[in-house]
Amino acid sequence: MLDIRWMRENQPALAEAMVKLNDVDAPWQLALQLDGERRNLLQQGEKLREERNAGSKQIGALFREKKAAEANALKQRMSQIGDEISQIDEELRRVDGALHDAMMRIPNLPDPDVPVAPDEEGNVVLTQWGDMPKFDFTPLPHWDLGTQLDIIDFERGVAAAGSRAYFLKGAGARLQRVLSNWFLDIHINEHGFTEVYPPMMVRGHAMEGTGNLPKFGDNLYRDAEEDYWFIPTAEVSVTNLHRDEILEPGTLPLNYVASTPCFRREKMSAGKDVRGIKRVHQFQKVEMVKFVEPAAGRDELEKLTRAAEVLLERLDLPYRRVAIATGDLSFVASIKYDLEVWAAGCQEWLEVSSCSLFRDFQARRANIRYRPREGARPEFVYTLNGSGLALPRVIIALMENYQQADGSIKLPEVLDSYLGGELEIR
RNA sequence: GGAGGGAUGGCCGAGAGGACGAAGGCGGUUGUCUUGAAAACAACUGUGGCAGUAAUGUCACCGGGGGUUCGAAUCCCUCUCCCUCCGCCA
Q1: What structural domains does chain A harbor?
Q2: Model-level pTM?
Q3: What is A115-141 written as a DSSP string?
Q4: Confidence band (pLDDT; 50, 70, 90) for A72?
């Protein structure tokens, strides 16, 4: 959520930002209009209330002085004012609701460093690391390798749970578990993150806090009877870890990491990427979430991105860092880098991490503040998050890039101790 | 799933239609006393909106939302969360 006061005072900048984002639906003009109405009503209502408060006080005094007649006369007048207040309140409720709804549908402002372009064509590759593997045979995509090695079972997955469902089996399931642990251990031991095990079903208001609701409910699963939503990423529950809190001086930055399943309907991409485990309804992901002071925001974004990149480097997987353009920026992000890993079998760059700085956009929605100094007024924190990393796609890259001519897979040495010396899958 | 009981300021806890933004205590800040500290005593001690350069004024806030009333922390409805007992359960 943006700061309504900033919006009031910076309308040209706001309009320009919305053009850059190519978000034609954002109801920012409506919000400003409603904000004006709201303040107008608020002032009218308060004036009447002031009158009523004084009158009521007087009625009490008159009764104590046994002047019932005067009191009753005054009562009638107050009753009238009461009716007027009710009318204004009703109108105010309507305007408030509409304003809140509009505010929740206005995207975050892009950082000045974000490349300006109407869509993903304008994304910019900032860096590329590593060499793409060369083969003296035709490398297979992971769905063929996985089936041959019986470490991914698509048929039975679909039978049990419908399209895009899969079982990881044996060495496949183990590889995912081991990678998850390895990622976590590195973030905990080397990058200063604290591991959390978060709720995977949350209330709707938590989804609003991170910006998944109200606009993107279509991509979420939910309970049919109760207000429970399945997280599409640990970002949701972990960001809400400090909802409605004021963090005291000295507590920032806070760094959390969690490995959770993620649930996504992928309604928008029906019929796309249907083969393999590239785009699935349920997948495991290690997610990092940071709460920091505003001045540290950009540095922390770099640290966060590096924390994810290091993992790919240690696995010796070629990757590139992509700066997301304004038109492709997610609703809540002010700046975002995607990390894409090369998958030799399907000959594609796969997004395995998205590192974003949200500034105070999420903090405002989830009401997460901090006190800059003892006794100072609370301010909104900056939040960031990034995958470190999304597992099935890392598994895809490992399988496809490290495949051998005979269809076996030889995993990189760094995983040796985590795999108990069993680096080969055959 | 059944039956009850709760939610009040940073914390504990009173308050049961009017003088209540809310007793009392704890904690905190400041002052007096003291070489210093402790103790004692005194004063102050919540958040947010709106208007204003400001001093300030005003409104709202007793878990959330609605209602009754001239007036609600207090009465009614509803939601959320917590606790106790019973049942079930990994």
Answers
A1: 4-104 (1.10.287.40), 120-425 (3.30.930.10)
A2: 0.92
A3: PP-SSGGG-EEEEEES-----SS-PPP
A4: confident
